[in-house]
Specification:
single chain, Elongation Factor Tu (Ef-tu), domain 3, 4 domains, three-stranded mixed beta sheet, Late control protein D
């Protein structure tokens, strides 16, 4: 094993054609951001556009960009992105290409946007698995729903001038889950399940102070809710009823009125869990590691007694340039 095996490495294909060797001498910077939920993952590629290697051709809108990052012996597929915008600037002459995991418009393989507004209803009893599957098929994508969510039945839902991506986000929020488009799939999974778009478990990152370049822990002193109250309409009694998660003060009352008791309780539980996690965060900068992915688990060891333990990565930013390969992580408590 030689020194070359530890040098940062990348691979990029556009519509199935490997253009890595063409980009390598021109690459100024590659930044890939992976975040939880419907925040669109993105890749930004900055290239030198001087006459030394010939002028670059403007990328085709909707082109499918696939990216691998890492090292020759640890090259990892990071996902598919749709060419969304291109900027050319100078001096120095450069081209900046931005690709998004969320599709706007139509890709070269026929995948369509999740952002178009629709007007329709979903009948009571529709399962999360059925909802995600129908939306996925409509957009030329594949569904990837965790077993813990697939068979859960939903109340009646009205989708009025609302995009599919917003609807998915709304459903996920009520079940303390994650809805995320990526790599030609729509993923719906419980928070903390740490599954890839293909349904495989993500690796857990074990980090000590020696493995990181810089770290910062923060615990906000803002008050956390003692309890959360959700109101639903009891049709049999003809009056509103309440469901509560947690106990004590302060009390947070949800503004929405829910169609039934189960929906109210599920959302109250989900919101209570989110509020209990609020305030604590861990930021880490480290040598590049392609295994750092949003929704993946991080195990901190040897920092402080109140920091050590499991965390959930909410954002991972990978940066490759002439200075090397670096990864920045934002995480929140897993429990």
């Amino acid at each position: 094993m030689g020194l070359m095996d530890f040098l940062p490495f990348f691979r990029i294909t556009v519509d199935g054609i490997d253009i890595s060797s063409t980009l390598a001498p021109r690459l100024v910077n590659l930044t890939l951001t992976d975040a939880v939920g419907v925040q669109s993952d993105s890749v930004q590629i900055t290239l030198s556009d001087t006459t030394l290697f010939g002028r670059l051709v403007e990328p085709r809108a909707g082109a499918e960009i696939r990216v691998w990052l890492g090292y020759p012996l640890q090259l990892k597929y990071m996902g598919m992105f749709t060419a969304d915008s291109v900027e050319v600037e100078g001096p120095p002459d450069r081209m900046v290409i931005t690709g998004l995991a969320t599709i706007n418009g139509e890709t070269t393989s026929g995948k369509t946007a999740l952002t178009d507004q629709k007007k329709r209803s979903w009948p009571e009893g529709t399962t999360i698995g059925a909802l995600v599957e129908k939306i996925s098929v409509e957009h030329g994508m594949e569904p990837a729903v965790s077993k813990n969510l697939a068979d859960l039945a939903l109340p009646h839902i009205d989708q009025i001038d609302e995009s599919d991506i917003n609807l998915l986000s709304r459903v996920a929020r009520d079940f303390d889950a994650i809805a995320k488009p990526g790599d030609g799939r729509i993923v719906m999974a419980k928070r903390g399940e740490s599954l890839t778009a293909s349904g495989q478990p993500m690796p857990t990152l074990l980090l000590t102070q020696k493995k990181v370049s810089r770290w910062r822990y923060r615990n906000s002193v803002k008050a956390k809710a003692g309890s959360v109250v959700a109101v639903y309409q009891d049709l049999a009694r003809g009056k509103p009823e309440e469901r509560t998660a947690g106990e004590g003060e302060p009390v947070r009352r949800l503004k929405r009125r829910f169609p039934n008791m189960d929906a109210a309780q599920t959302t109250a539980d989900s919101e209570f869990q989110k509020l209990q996690r609020a305030g604590r965060s861990l930021l880490i900068t480290m040598p590049g590691d392609p295994d750092a992915m949003a929704e993946g688990k991080l195990l901190a060891a040897g920092f402080r007694s109140y920091i050590d333990g499991e965390w959930l990565i909410t954002r991972a930013t990978h940066n490759l340039d002439s200075g090397g390969y670096r990864t920045s992580i934002e995480a929140e408590p897993l429990a």
